[in-house]
Design a protein that fits this description.
about 350 residues; 2 domains; 14 strands; Aspartate Aminotransferase, domain 2; alpha/beta; pyridoxal phosphate (chains A, B); homodimer; Phosphoserine aminotransferase (chains A, B); transferase (chains A, B); seven-stranded mixed beta sheet; pyridoxine biosynthesis (chains A, B); PyrdxlP-dep_Trfase (chains A, B); Aspartate Aminotransferase, domain 1
Chain lengths: ~350, ~350
């Protein structure tokens, strides 16, 4: 039976990206060697990283003066690299959930941290509004999409300080005004690649200002100066990212991804709002287009497990909600097809008809 | 033409490891999803990491009280994680080359560093002998194999302090007395997997003693407590490691790898010593079995480029020496076949006959 992959991450990738990766692992560019066993210094690999950087700059319209890096360790490592490199005295954080809290925790090791707002009291079911950010902070950190709670900041915030954005789960799903950021980072395993690589976009002239000695590998300058080749980068995950970037461009770029994201989300949220069994968990205006969270209406609470079983039997994979929210989560990253969300909606309708 | 992969890293992997990885990337365990797009929390993936950990413990005969971790960031990130976690007051480092120096540089950010010995004055052509290590250090750090210079510490050192070993380029090529170490780490892209994962073996009761706050991701305790699942681990590189660990076991374990390493190295070093064109660069007793470095004898210096071209034309890949040494480097990791080194030796003989 055809499977529909709604995993929150690592998550669905375009089939051609997967097939091209497997092909290059068997024989890289007809070299007789596997992509897994070539040197990162090989003359065949530099073009991979160069093209990937160029495509990221093109797709996100990255202004002059920014560098694009491929690092290991995941976005969680960036939680400490960001303050190590950018926190001079005081930083502001918008608390929209688990990942924002984790980022804030690391920043407190390096300086003063101001929480500008939080929706913790409401189990992060909305993005806080109407707050102000102090003018004297080094940056405002935001998590643009909250994978666990299903909220998203999809429109650029209007603030007076430079931002740092954790865009792990919505990068490349929409245009971004990169000039508003000192740094953007994203674990690749949602919209970009397999797990094992993190992309970081940094504003070059903001580096080197922090009043501390930074371990070499944690210093963004190290990686800027060496073009992500200070040490051996994760070759295969970078290659898969390149294949996916090519696919995004071919499909029409981040504007097309944005349009598709709206189409997919409209299909699922409309059904959630219509179906008597289900309700969304997030305030309507803050609903994520990437991670669609919903639960059983209270009078049908006992149907949660049966629905999960039914949907699984129909080929849906990874729709169990995170334990912090319960219920269901349909992750709809770039590679999620309209057919996939229609299949999910059919499950919801059929299950409603059965009960 | 058949290619023989002598790359220093990322480097040769057994063909079945590559083919099985490609197969699982197309369809993981018949699930209909790619290995690249499954959740690391999927019930199919936990057995992967569990089996990989168990095989590492079995193959290296790891004593009770040690944890095996899979991390991102490469061995270069361990250069700062090691002192972050283990340097309480003073640490000793044996300086055997570029990687040892880099490790030492990071340690100096955290405490006093004693260089117990160095072969820098001789361009690291030997492993220093006859030195003593202070008794009051927290650990002695050694680089067991020096990829660039072609030296190796293949027999456990007899010292009175616990060691920390960077075994990036010779792990799983020989038995190791793990009990002598507080920590062993290795970037996987030599003897274990594709680039993108680092394995770390830590002695649990040595953790938590450092007098500093450690960023969460840099604290080994974080990863021990979460079984390498604190954040998304590099799923595909870990899977490839598992395939390679299965291969090593099937081939007879690290004892068989050790025997093969000696056989391969004997074949190449014997030819270097016999052939009038070439000479080894390293003192005979410290020659690495993993990275065999050699140069043209002075009277044949002008044949360096022609030999490289000839060997390349015969299918040899990656034998150009590192710029710090010049000449040639034949890296002979676990997956290097006897056929491969014989093909290299044939090139050397044929080229000698032509000149």
């Amino acid at each position: 039976m055809k499977k529909y992959n709604f995993n929150a991450g690592p998550s669905i990738l375009p089939r051609e990206v997967i097939e091209n990766t497997a092909k290059q692992i068997l024989d890289f560019n007809g070299s007789g060697l596997s992509l897994a066993e070539i040197s990162h210094r090989a003359k065949d690999f530099q073009p991979v990283i160069d093209e990937a950087v160029a495509l990221i700059k093109e797709l996100l319209n990255v202004p002059e003066g920014y560098s694009v890096l491929f690092l290991g360790g995941g976005a969680s490592l960036e939680f400490c690299m960001v303050p190590y490199n950018f926190l001079i005295k005081k930083a502001a954080y918008l608390n929209t959930g688990v990942w924002a809290k984790k980022a804030m925790k690391e920043a407190k090791l390096f300086g003063e941290v101001v929480e500008v707002a939080s929706s913790a009291d409401a189990n992060f079911t909305f993005i806080p509004k109407g707050w102000t950010c102090p003018d004297d902070v080094d940056y405002l950190h935001i998590t643009t999409n909250n994978t666990i709670y299903g909220t998203e900041i999809r429109k650029e915030l209007d603030v007076n300080v430079p931002m740092i954005g954790d865009m792990s789960s919505d990068i490349f799903s929409r245009p971004v005004d990169v000039a508003k950021y000192k740094c953007i980072y994203a674990g690749a395993q949602k919209n970009l690649s397999m797990a094992g690589v993190t992309i970081v976009i940094v504003k070059d002239d903001e580096l080197g200002k922090a009043p501390r000695e930074i371990p070499t590998m944690l210093n963004y300058q190290t990686h800027v100066e060496k073009g992500s080749m200070f040490n051996t980068p994760p070759v295969v995950p970078i290659y898969t990212a390149l294949e996916n970037l090519r696919w995004i461009k071919k499909m029409g770029g981040v504007e097309a991804m944005d349009k598709l994201a709206h189409e997919r989300a409209d299909i699922v949220y409309s059904e959630i709002d219509r179906n008597k069994l289900f309700r969304g968990t997030v305030n309507a205006e803050d609903r994520s287009l990437m991670n669609i969270c919903f639960v059983m209406n209270e009078e049908y609470a006992e149907l949660e497990k049966p629905f999960l079983e039914y949907a699984t039997s129909q080929g849906m994979v990874g729709i169990k909600g995170h334990r912090s929210v319960g219920g269901f989560r349909a992750s709809c990253y770039n590679a999620q097809s309209i057919e996939g969300v229609q299949a999910l909606v059919k499950c919801m309708k059929d299950f409603e008809a059965q009960h």
